[in-house]
Structure formats: structure tokens, C-alpha cells
Amino acid sequence: MPRAQAARPFMYAIATIFLILILSFSFVYIKDIAKTAREREVITFIKSVQGIIDTQSKQSFGSHVDRSIAVPEGVNSVCFVDQSQKTDRFVNNELTVFLEHYPESNFFILPLEDFMAEKLENFEVPKSPLCIRVINGKINLRLLSQFGTTLVGTPARKDEIEECTSIFYTSEPNQGIDIVFLGQAYGTTEEFKNDVYDYINDVFFKLEPFHSHRDNFNFYIVDDFQDLGCTFEGYVLCNSFKVKRLASRCPHEFIFILIDRNKIKDFIMPIRSSAIANIANINTADKPSVLMHEFGHSFADLADEYVDDYYLAIKFDGERYPNCDNSRCSKWSGIEGTDCLKGCSTDGYYRGTKNSLMKSLSAEYYGPINEKAITENLDVYKR
Amino acid sequence: MKTKKLILIIMLLLFAQFACADKITILNLHYDRGEVSVIDKIDTYGYYPDRKIQPDIGYKAEVVSVDDAVLYSFKFEVPLEHYTDIHLDNRTQGGLVIVNETDFALIIPSLPTAKEVNFYNEKNVKVLTVGLIEEKLIPTMPIIIGLAIIFVIIISMALKKRKT
Asked: Which end of chain A is more exposed for a tag (fewer CB within 10 A), N or C?
């Protein structure tokens, strides 16, 4: 083989090495340039926010201006924080996770893993944190001049982010029982909030043993009616992944989904509420007590005490439940005010009281057997 | 006394950690007659249930570290039982719908040293493993690929030379 021919593969290899090295270095270099450009863009953004705050702070007291500011690509929200006052930790979970790492900062650009926290001057916020969503690449601010400072707000409620709202708070999430309400088919936040308050005050806490265990519960709402993929084939069934994704914004052991249904529509086409693991799907057109019935299933694994032909089609094991037993009714032999009555989901099992919320939605009590089962689980959370 | 104080501090730290939002992983799973598969997985910031009440018998999930230590574990029931209820015609009716196939989701803490989450059925047989380590494309990747190609060329040249 001629010498020149033998050296050809070697030349190819050298050329390949050079080519690959050039490509690799170019890749890293271009990435660095892009990164630097983005950092510069973020710095410019921070400076322009500080600039408009400063400008407004010099205006006459009480004057306000609405400004839209373009944000760097990839930013999903910004948060203004007043670290001197108590911050609502449920407003933005990502911020809450990072906040303690930046005690000196008061302006956060999210996602924080990609962007940064900064310290701005001359501003106040009506609440801390004030998190503003990016809409079409911009944030909308309403700036109100105060005595030498600027009160930062938003022109509309939709500009603000509140991932989770605590509406009844008694104990730390790790100590209490956390329940989050999600809404479907609601027209306004007000309607949803009103329903939630009605369920909590007029239904949930009206009933024993929950009435005497008020201090064990925390309630939250997620004011975001995004589609949860609910189907209505006989009963309400929502997409578990979508539900959990939304519910994870708040502390939660149990999830109540309120499906706002028109009563007339529901009269023509009735839909059943349902309880599936820790999720209760509630048809708001039904009796409000249906929420407590479903929670009885989820919280204490209680069986239906009414008899329905539906149960004949499945292999139902009543012995598994605290409120159904065989004809001896030994499960509740020591409990006062109980009986042994035929009918607990099927005619083959027995229940302990003539009526209860697990038998009829018209009942206004769970009854001693169900209350005992519920209390046993409540005791797990006793402080 | 010192030990007591230390325990209290550790407990407070633990409580402080659990009381706040955290980095979490939400797993979208599919169950079909005993077979469990993963549909989707997302990492986000938020809360996972405290799981103080767990079933005696059920499936088990174990988050395992890179050195195979169990970091987090809990029991759960696959939601195959759907209680359905309505008050109609002056009486409460409904029933239990039992399905043998369903999609369900679980929220677990996203722990920094976690490698994978293993799922075991009621008989303690492993039915699924889901990797938790983020696959990040590191910037030096082209260099590694380049070096690998060079290595292959050199080897092939050496082999060719040996043949001739």
C-alpha cells in the first residue's frame, strides 16, 4: 500500500476530530452568548421595574398609573414581597420554597430555578406576596404614589396569582386535616366561594363529630376553574391526574370537587355525586348533606346503609365496613342506642340505627356507630 | 436535658419542613387487572398528603435513594371502588361501582437523593418502578459524543491496520 494512501484514514480522523471540537466549542460558546443575552435582558427588566417605581414615587400623593412591562422569555410570573410583614405562604408555592433562602430580596422572577431574586427600593405592597402573572409576555401593574414610595398593585384581579387560598385555618397543615375545595362549571369566584362557605358552616360543622372537632380542620380553595376532565355518565367522575395537579397547590388530605349544576337541568338529567378514594365529587344540585355522606365513605370507609339493587350486581363484603355486620351485630354491641336492623347496602347485612346520614341524605346525624368510626380517625390527628 | 432540647429542635425543623410547600412529583398511573403502568409524571411545587391514615392492606409505594435506602414509603388503595349516591324520589339511592381498570394519580415528595419509586401489590410483589432522576442534557454532551466517535474511529483504524 502506498504511504500516502495509508495515511488517508489518519487524515480523515484528524479532520473529524477538528470538526467535532469546533462544533462542541461553538455549541458551548453560542449557549454562553444566549445565557449572557438573557441575563442582560433580565437585568434590563429589573431596572425598568425599579425605574417606573421610582418615577411614580415622585408624583403627587394619590396619583396612579397603569403600566404594562415586557418580561424576558420564559418568565411565568413575578412576585413583590415585603419581608418585614407576614407573608401568605399559600399564594405561590415555588416562592414559599425559595423565600427563606433569599431573606434580603423583595422581588422574585419565576421560575426561580431559571431566573433570580432581587432587592428593589421605594415600593410597598397591599399584601405580601403580590404575585403577578405574565399575560402575553407582559405584566400589568397599577402604581399608586405614596409619601415617597409607590404602592404596587394590579389593574385587575385576573392579573394576580393566588394558587391557594386558606379560608378556615386552625392548625399547621402537618397537624390538622386539610381539605381543599375545587370548582367546576362555576360562573364566578363569588358563587364558588359562597357555596364553599355554605358547605363548611351550614353542613360540615353542623354535624357531629365534626362540630366538636372544628380545631382539627383546615379548609382551602383553589380559585381556578380549569377543566378537570369530569364525565357525567350516571355519576361524576373526574380525571384524577388533573384533580391532584390542581389540588397539590394547597395542603390536602381530602379533595371536594363542587360541580355547579342547574337544579332544573339536574331534575331532567339527575347525576349522582361520588366518593373515590380521597376525592368527593359533589353535584351541588343535590341535597347539601350529600357532601357529608361522601365524606363518610372517604374519611371513615363507611358503607351505604340504604339497600339498593345496585349492590346485588357486585360481590359486596359488608363485614369489611364498620357500620355493617352480620345478624349478630357484635361490632357495636357495647354502643348505647344501637339496634340490629336488617339492611346495610344489601338485605344480607345489618345496620345499627334506624336512620343515619349513611342511610338517607335527609338524616341530620351520622348516628353513634358512624360517629365512633369517624372519631377513631379524627383521633389520629389529635394534638 | 441537652438531648431533649436537641430532639425538640429536630422535631421543630421537621415540622417546619412538612408545614410548607415543597418540590413534589405527581405520578399519573394506569391500573388494569393487577398490572400498573405509568402514563405521565410531572415535577412541581406544592403539597402532598400527610398520609396519617393508611389502609392495613393495600399497595405500597417506596421512594428509594441512589444507594437503595427507603426514603419515603406509604400504603394506598387503588381507587377501584366508586361510591355513587343521589337523593331521588324522596329516597337516597345509588351504589358501589367496582371497576377493574382505572387511571389514578399519586403525589409524592420530590427528594433530592431519590432514584426511583417502586410499587408493590398486596402480596408484596413489585409491579412497577418509575425512575425519578431528571434526565438533563448537559452542555458538554457534544464533547462526549465527539470523543466517543473519535474513540470508535481510532479503534476501527487500529483493527484495519492489524488486518493489513
From this structure: N
Work out the minimum CA distance from A83 to partner chain B, whole angstroms: 17
Question: What per-residue confidence (pLDDT) applies to B49?
Answer: 94
Kindly report the nearest CA distance between residue A313 and chain B, in angstroms: 9
At a CB cut-off of 8 Å and minimum separation 6, what does A32 contact?
Answer: none
Name the DSSP letter for residue B161. Answer: H
Q: How far off is chain B from A284, nearest CA to CA, in Å? A: 11
CB contact under 8 A, A172 and B94: no
Instruction: Check CB contact under 8 Å for B46 and A248.
Output: yes
Question: Cα separation of B162 and B164, whole Å?
Answer: 6
Q: Return per-residue pLDDT of chain B as tens, 164 residues.
A: 334 333 433 443 344 444 578 999 999 999 999 999 999 999 999 999 999 889 989 999 999 999 999 999 999 999 999 999 999 989 999 989 999 999 999 999 999 999 999 999 999 999 999 999 876 555 566 666 777 777 777 777 777 777 66
How far CA A60 is from CA of A64, A66, A135, A142, B8, in Å, comes to 9, 15, 30, 15, 53
Q: How many other CB atoms are there within 10 angstroms of residue B71's CB atom?
A: 16
Contact A234 B84 (CB under 8 A): yes
Which one of A251, A279, A310 has the shortest CB-CB distance to B95? A310
ipTM greater than cut 0.95: no
Q: Which positions ≥6 away from B88 have C-beta within 8 Å? A: A270
Enumerate the H helices of A59-102 as residue ranges: 93-99
Chain A residue with CA closest to B22: the answer is A97
Contacts of B55 (CB under 8 A, 6+ apart): B75, B76, B77
Q: Do B153 and A93 touch (CB under 8 A)?
A: no
Answer yes or no: do A97 and B18 touch at CB < 8 A.
no
Distance CA A362, CA A355 (A): 9
Q: Which helix (H) or strand (E) holds B163?
A: helix B141-163
Question: What are phi and psi for residue A362, nearest 5 degrees?
Answer: -85, -15
Any idea where the domains of chain B sit in the sequence?
22-137
Given the C-alpha cell 397591599, which residue does it identify?
A: A126
Helices (H), ranges, chain A: 3-57, 93-99, 189-198, 240-247, 263-268, 290-300, 368-378
What is the 3 state secondary structure string of A189-255?
Answer: HHHHHHHHHHHHHHHHCCCCCCHHHHHHEEEEECCCCCCCCCEEECEEECCHHHHHHHHCCCCCCEE
The answer to whether the Cβ–Cβ distance between A286 and B87 falls below 8 Å is yes
| Grid-cell match 339536574, residue found | A266
Which CATH code, of 3.40.190, 1.10.3470, 3.30.160, 2.60.40, is assigned to B22-137?
2.60.40
For A194, residues 6+ apart whose C-beta sits below 8 A from its C-beta are none
Of B42, B76, B93, the CB nearest to A306: B93
A24 touches chain B (CB under 8 A): yes
Distance, CA of A299 to CA of A213 (rounded, Å): 14
How far is the C-alpha of A54 from the C-alpha of A48, rounded, in Å?
A: 10
